[in-house]
Amino acid sequence: MMDVYSQSEQWSKDQIEQTQLTRLRSVIDRARKCDFYARRLDAAGIFADSLHSRDDLTNIPFTTKDDLRAQYPLGLLCVPQSEIIRLHSSSGTTGTPTAICYTQNDLNSWADLVARCLYMVGVRREDVFQNMSGYGLFTGGLGFHYGAERLGCLAIPSGAGNSRRQIKLVKDFGTTVAHILPSYALILGEALRAMGEDPQSLPLRIALVGAEPYTEEFRQRIEKLFAIKAYNSYGLTEMNGPGVAFECQEQAGMHLWEDAYIGEIIDPETGKTLPDGEIGELVLTSLCREAMPVLRYRTRDLTRFLTGECACGRKFRRLDRIRGRSDDMLIIKGVNVYPMQIEQVIMTFPEVGQNYLILLENQGVADQMRVQVEIRDEYFADDMRVMQQLQKRIANRLRDEILLTPKVEFVQSNSLPKSEGKAVRVSDLRRKN
Ligand code: ADP
Ligand code: ZN
Fold first, then answer.
1. Most buried one in 100, 283, 312, 381, CB count within 10 A?
2. Which CATH number characterizes residue 357's domain?
3. Tens-digit pLDDT profile for residues 87-129
4. Ligand 1 lining (C-beta closer than 6 Å)
């Protein structure tokens, strides 16, 4: 018999939908074991046997991040406390973190899902997997770790940061696969170059990259720098952590593991479901979780379902690259801007280094946007005119994209602050009146 994680090609559309309905019914029963969902589902008149098709899901009220915060720490627990054996918490990128608990079954099915992702992109038990992600409460550490072990890889829990040690481990143990934050991947590459080494000479062949938004341009930089393949990885603590959606070798969107999660895209204003192809907010329902199932969770992540079938043949629908969170939207002089629109433009300039920072200020009256970009040493020119021309070219391209002309400032390579965790791309210094 084949291992469960190696069979993702074999699911038919029908099987996926049947599994979703069966599991949706059982998750409704399980969710009713906590007061919060019992009350909510009663009020909406939803019972396991009143669901006749997967689309009946839309009668279930949304769960928001504020709901989770209000139920912190254990309000959403649906099993006796003695059954939970692990706790994780979100990174708190947008405020108070939320806490999520796991039973042994939750940890097993989570490890299977992560192993399925790894297997899909060609990781095998012979691979050496280095997890350059923060361990501890963050799910990217233990989540990937157990997934890699499930697959039978040698899993190295190297943790975040400390580039010298990372590089030493890669060389000493012949690391072939790394899980790494996109922002840190480029920083690591620069650290190697600074040590006088060629990033392409490492044994690495695959990087699994996610946990924060980044653009296609950014991915291409990572792939070129190390001469590897970089696959996009999406997950969130409320849905276990990593292993929710993952790119296959086609690199054309991330397959959502629909046997374990139901995904919907809604209009964030009206809450109405949007058809595949349209961009909106991703809403997820966990189908397999026991300890804390979450129904119709508003992730605030903006993306869309890609239409059509993937060339790999898998029938799981694909999510497009996450454009950012609805919270990430900047409003400057009445114009809406997402940080990723800026990244997309500046990363196409070869002169631009690996880090950037968007500063918002309102000294004087109107809001101002300043974009600080690192310029590679080899492009830093003494000639002011050359530098000014480059600034102008970048500013013009940004204006075409975001309809505002930000001030572009050059700083030296490696001079902008680095974060150990998810990158901080925006510094909002505006005084609120
Ligand atoms: P927090 O929401 O506090 O950052 P998590 O650590 O649970 O906590 O992170 C989950 C979030 O990270 C997602 O909701 C999403 O915004 C972001 N994220 C995860 N993977 C990706 C990815 N591949 N692309 C873009 N954003 C991602
Ligand atoms: Zn595919």
1. 100
2. 3.30.300.30
3. 999 888 888 788 999 999 999 999 999 999 999 999 999 999 9
4. 90-94, 138, 210-213, 232-237, 299, 301, 322, 325
Measured from the alpha carbon of residue 282, the closest ligand is 1
Is 183 a member of any domain? yes
CATH number of the domain residue 92 falls in: 3.40.50.12780
Q: Are residues 283 and 394 in the same domain?
A: no
What is the tens place of the pLDDT at every residue in 281-305? 999 999 999 999 999 999 999 999 9
3-class state of residue 170 by DSSP: helix
Ligand 2 center from residue 314 Cα (angstroms): 6
Same domain, 348 and 317: no
How do residues 345-394 score in pLDDT, each as one tens digit?
999 999 999 999 999 998 777 889 999 999 999 998 889 999 999 999 99
Q: For residues 102 and 87, is the Cβ–Cβ distance under 8 A? A: yes
By C-alpha distance, which of 125, 119, 127, 83 is closest to 101? 83
364 contact partners, CB below 8 Å, separation of at least 6: none
Residue 23 within any structural domain of the chain: yes
**CA 237 – CA 415 distance, rounded (Å):** 32
Lookup: tokens for 203: 């044994």
DSSP letter at 384 equals: H
Residue 38: give the domain boundaries.
1-328
Could you say which ligand is closest to the alpha carbon of residue 311?
Answer: 2
